[in-house]
Amino acid sequence: MRSEKSRKLFREARKYLVGGVNSPVRAYKAVGRSPIFITRGKGSRIYDADNNCYLDLVMSWGALILGHAYPPVLRAINGAAKNGSSFGAPTSAETELARIINCAIPSIEKIRLVNSGTEATMSAIRLARGFTGKDKIVKFEGSYHGHCDSLLVKAGSGAATFGQPDSLGVPRASSQDTIVIPYNDIDAAGRVIKREHKKIACVIIEPVAANMGVILPKIGFLVGLRELTKKYNIVLIFDEVICGFRFTFGGAQNLFGITPDLTALGKIIGGGLPLAAYGGRKEIMDKLSPLGGVYQAGTLSGNPLAVAAGIATLKELARKDYSKLNETVGEMCREMEVI
To answer: What does the pLDDT look like over 216-249, one tens digit per residue?
Structure first.
């Protein structure tokens, strides 16, 4: 495979960008080579600077469920761009996107648009703390919820431990309020929540744990968490940044029949542009400024280009047959297992 141009571009990038990249996974260190530089994509294929063609099974880390350069999404972005790229003021398109998400995920009674999955989970946790007046949070071992300080922790030994920072620059105080529990262990969750419930503001979990290899919840695990958090007045946050609109039109919560208090969304809802969201019960969301005392803001939140891409993507997905998509994915996985 030719890669001379990509190597040259990487050498140049390293002069100006940290490690030559803007996200660590793009450095290709885990696979022992220098990265390829992409010039274009179409459908299921991407092409690099040396004009090598690849079948893309990653799709911008899950953001492009419809594929690259999907015509209706491109038309929506181009149409929005003609009117301006950013206003820092409300647009009706933001309301339209919120309405589509609300109809697809009924637990989201009110919503706030942001720019990244990290921003969505970070803000949802702050909101849960503001709503409950408590500080501690519970997450699950191996789960990634973004790079905010309180979530960058390792799980220690034992069924549940107070976390240790998983990155330089994270103050120990930021992680000491994070409790890490083994995923799918409802007994450990029960013991910790019963013991610490007066201090726990929220439990955050991916309904399907993507970062550790797409692990499904055991039967009764999510139900048990919902029962525990309700009993002890703890906010249950579903991180659906990855699984939202991927298994079905809506959240994985729709399939599992679980209603969380708050939900974080990202990736697919932006149609390939930077857009994410968090939302949930009205009484919790109304604690956000300007109605309440929990502050969160963003100059580019609800950016008109990103919102246009998101609306176009979700409208297309609403017409898609997810059962067919699941069949195709299942067939592909079986073929890969044979290989």
So the answer is: 999 999 999 999 999 999 999 999 999 999 999 9
**pTM of the predicted structure, to 2 decimals:** 0.92
Is 239 an active-site residue?
yes
End-to-end distance of the chain based on CA atoms, in angstroms?
Answer: 21
Q: pLDDT tens digit string along 254-291?
A: 999 999 999 999 999 999 999 999 999 999 999 999 99
Active-site choice (48, 56, 177, 239): 239
CB 142 within 8 A of CB 209: yes
Catalytic hit among 48, 56, 70, 144: 144
Active-site residue flag, 110? no
* Catalytic status, residue 54: no
